[in-house]
Amino acid sequence: MGRLSGGQQRKVLLARVIARQPRVLLLDEPLTNIDPEAKEDLSRLILNIHRQLGLTTLFVSHEFGPLLAAADRVITVVAGRIIARNMAEPRFARAV
Q: Quick one: which H or E segment has residue 76?
């Protein structure tokens, strides 16, 4: 995988996880340190996998990105403490 870009490497890793047919998909910073085009591409792929396979998907991120629009719930954690639990909605993304 050394010759693949960061975005391509993440797609390969995601495919390996999906091949194991998990019931829950835990993604820890999957969009970090990849270029904007790869970030958008990977976001679409994650969203499609989530919808088509009906997986419970936990997405950990320090940034609100393209996947926020697809979230059912958003939990905000600061310094290890939950400071907010909200149903996902656009105004929440602007408030944080």
A: strand 73-78
Residues 24-37: tens digit of each pLDDT: 999 999 988 889 89
Interatomic CA distance for residues 33 and 52, integer angstroms: 26
Cα separation, 22 vs 87, in Å, equals: 25
CA distance 74 to 90: 11
pLDDT digits (tens, 9 = 90+) for 34-77: 898 988 899 899 989 988 999 999 988 887 676 777 788 888 88
Residue 84, H or E segment? strand 81-87
Backbone angles phi, psi at 67, to 5 degrees: -80, -15
- Does the domain at residues 6-95 carry the CATH identifier 3.50.50.60? no
Q: What is the maximum span of the chain, computed from C-alpha positions, in angstroms?
A: 41
